Amino acid sequence: MNDIRSVIDWLADGARSAQLSEDVLTELCRRVVDTGIPLWRVAVFVTTLHPDLMGRAFYWRSESGVKVAEAEYDILETDDYLKSPVVAVRGTRQPLRRQLADPNCHYDFPVLRELRAEGATDYAAFPMIFTDGSVHVVSWTTQQPGGFTPKQFADLKQVVAPLTRVAEIRALRRTATTLLNTYVGRQTGEQILAGKIRRGHVEAIHAAIWLSDMRGFTTRSERLPPQDLIDLLNRYFDCQVPAILNRGGEVLKFIGDGLLAIFPLAGDGEDANEVCRRALTCAHEAEAAIAALDPQPGDDHDAIRFGLALHIGQVSYGNIGGGNRLDFTCIGPAVNLAARLEKRASMLGRTIVASAEFAAHVPGELVLLGEFPVAGFAAPQKLFGLKNRSAPSQS
User: Fold this and answer.
1) Which of 27, 58, 127, 358 is the most exposed place for a label (fewest CB within 10 A)?
2) pTM of the predicted protein model
3) Which domain holds residue 152?
4) Are residues 124 and 214 in the same domain?
């Protein structure tokens, strides 16, 4: 049988044998049980920096292993959360213990009665205080007759400090990944985390390019109150971003009401047809979603319309900027052409247009609209549109 020192040493070494956070908890509980402490239930609650989630909870049970639950912000208003030991420990920053087998135990939290009904005899919760002062919580529960012995309780207390450091390191990594995914996109975030952060680090890739904007945005922005305008933009982008991400695209940039995204091709480019079909499917989904947007209080009642240009070509993908302020984006003639074609779509009263290069990869889906001069390009460019589709022009 191991002693608690072996558990502490494993945590102090970074719990490197466990890749994921749930693996850390699984192995931690196994190691603690191997020291002779009969754990039955362990829970770790860690708040996070995420636009949709306020925290994650990891639950381990001796009979079923680890389950992970994500808590959205609305949980902060629920009785289950407000009347939980987690809130008490976070508020006081002090440990909390309830010896459930004691007839005089104070059941001041509803969950304690639930645990006792399942046979729990002792419950102990400890604050995990990160270096930034934020408070997170770990709780230990046993079904051992009489609860934790004094030595077992002392051993669990010793585990909390090194566990906190491991939890903080894992949480920081997850926060960095979440923030990069939120602000620059998953694939770009992976590039940055992999160390591609120097200015001028650019690679040439082939991709289908998506460049869209909202028709009549300038006029709307003059009529709508600022918050109503922001709400409108958020609903408008919600019609595009999920479809793009769900089909392998990467949203690189929001430029006011404009959106730049790419659908990267494989290195050999043999998947160009399949990538372009996915991009065109996204275009149909976005068009339908935007057409179905319901007016909200403060909206004017004009239909919300957008314009989209699709192109495929080589782009320079990487870090561009000045000093230590960089943008991970894509540039090049192919992006410029997509921007020019989107403007031409507006002039033609078309919602979705595509270049000849893109149309060649989705045969039968698009029709030739004609050849048009494009600023910055010497030769006229062929422009394609959806069959039997048009939209009233709005500048």
Assistant:
1) 27
2) 0.73
3) 4-183
4) no
